[in-house]
Amino acid sequence: MTQTMKNQTPPPSRPGRPGQRQRERQQRKQRRQRRLVLLFSGLVALLILVGAIAWAVVAARQSSEATARADASATAAANATSAHATSTANAVNAKATADVQSLIKANPKGPDTPPKVDGTPQKTASGLQYIIIKPGTGATVQSGSTVAFEYTGWIEGTNKKFDSSYDHGGQPFAVTIGQNQVIKGWDEGVTGMKLGEMRRLIIPSNLAYGDKDQKDQTGKVIIPGKATLIFDVTAVSFTQPPAQQQPGQ
């Protein structure tokens, strides 16, 4: 049996198909090329991603630095503006204080009778009359302005003084214009004044207290009904809204 097996002729090998090895080599080459292309594409994508991240970091840093510079510039500008405003306010307040002291020195108390003034009174449509005794150089008093005034008031005809801020230590009287905090003649008469201006107001009774007597706490008549009032008023400074009564009350 062994002999028989040794003598057997092995079957002939099957010949390969024509071009098969060449195709296999070509396929292996194409697979390598695809892998290289994929690898290269991955590397390129990775480089792009890294570049984008780096650009974003740089842009964010530049934006942060620009914002910081802008904030610093804005802060510096705000500080400069605030300092200028504070300096201006201090200068204005100092001038107002000096003006008040000068007025108090000139008027240790309100004059008992109206001082003589030059000029022809200007009359408004309402019947109010006024004379500019001394022009002002400051800002203009407008409706809504809160202004501190020095004043003295008399009753026309008798020329009797009924009130004066100088009789109260020269403490300026503050009022917000156009808010019905004072008689109509005051609201109208001081509107348009400039700070530092002194103006005489001649206020008919219909713009003052009308027909009603104005009495003090003891019941004494201070301002009789139907009285025309005379005020010498000086606009001293702009100030904070007040919480006080009308002059003469």
Automatic annotation (TrEMBL):
<keyword id="KW-1133">Transmembrane helix</keyword>
<dbReference type="GO" id="GO:0003755">
    <property type="term" value="F:peptidyl-prolyl cis-trans isomerase activity"/>
</dbReference>
<keyword id="KW-0413">Isomerase</keyword>
<keyword id="KW-0472">Membrane</keyword>
<dbReference type="Pfam" id="PF00254">
    <property type="entry name" value="FKBP_C"/>
</dbReference>
<feature type="region of interest" description="Disordered">
    <location>
        <begin position="1"/>
        <end position="32"/>
    </location>
</feature>
<dbReference type="InterPro" id="IPR001179">
    <property type="entry name" value="PPIase_FKBP_dom"/>
</dbReference>
<comment type="similarity">
    <text>Belongs to the FKBP-type PPIase family.</text>
</comment>
<keyword id="KW-0697">Rotamase</keyword>
<feature type="transmembrane region" description="Helical">
    <location>
        <begin position="36"/>
        <end position="58"/>
    </location>
</feature>
<protein>
    <recommendedName>
        <fullName>Peptidyl-prolyl cis-trans isomerase</fullName>
        <ecNumber>5.2.1.8</ecNumber>
    </recommendedName>
</protein>
<dbReference type="InterPro" id="IPR046357">
    <property type="entry name" value="PPIase_dom_sf"/>
</dbReference>
<keyword id="KW-0812">Transmembrane</keyword>
<feature type="domain" description="PPIase FKBP-type">
    <location>
        <begin position="144"/>
        <end position="239"/>
    </location>
</feature>
